[in-house]
Amino acid sequence: MKKIIVLLSAMLITLSVTAQVDVKFGVKAGLNVSQLGSGTYEYGDHSGDIDATEMLLGFHVGGFANFNLGPYVGLQPELVFSLQGGKESENDETATWSLGFINVPVLLDIKPIPNLSVFVGPQIGFNVYKSLSNGDESYSGSELDDLLSEGRTKLNAVDVAAVVGVQYTFIEHLTVGVRYNFGFTPSRGVTDEGKDAGQSISGCSHRVIQLSVGWLF
Fold first, then answer.
1. Residue 194: is its pLDDT beyond 50?
2. Whole-number Å distance between alpha carbons of 149 and 155
């Protein structure tokens, strides 16, 4: 992860020096509405569906750099902590998955009219926090890993997603935006032991709606 961040920083510095583009920096924070999507599992000759979780409220906070490449286009890389996940309810009990990611989106900034940005681009996320709570029981970190490994499953540490959203800038500094992060990689997987036993999981990817307020410097 550190190598990716250093490489991204070097690329952005080079871009700003060689292209002499207008660069603005900013911070942002806001609300997450997230879930883990539906999926399927296979175990030998058995297979079945995994239902999407219920929505979970979380938050995000981070910073960004906006490179103005022209009157109608720009580039906006970001570094954002995002708390996301979902809830599963069964027999009057609710299990809550709380997953913290350091997300690094690199977004094309399309500017159809002044002060309005339409963002689209890829995002890679790295899991830095995980917990599962169910009633009075709670598991996190390696303790959660050990619990999941009993069923030969695990939480995947890397998430690759697509991002699309819009943002409006007021008084040249205050930004308000909404975006949707659509994960491509499964949030859950199986251990090597599970693979040897013929287990597999597909789908169950992250779905996150983000409402943000930011400030441009």
1. yes
2. 10
